[in-house]
Amino acid sequence: MDTHDLDWIRVGHINDLPEGRVKTVTARTTSVCLSHFDGRWAAMDNHCPHQRGPLGEGSIEKGSDGKCWIRCPWHGWDFDPLTGAPPGGHEDSGQKLYPLKIEDGEIFVGLKAEPAHERTVTDVMTETMVNWGVKRVFGMVGHSNLGLADAIRRQVNRGKLGYVGIRHEGAAAFAASAYGKLTGKPAACLTIAGPGATNLLTGLWDAKVDRAPVLALTGQVQTQVFGPGAFQDIDLKSAFDAVSRFSQPVLATSNHAELMSLALKT
Question: Mind listing the domains of the chain with CATH numbers?
Answer without folding.
Answer: 3-112 (2.102.10.10), 121-265 (3.40.50.970)
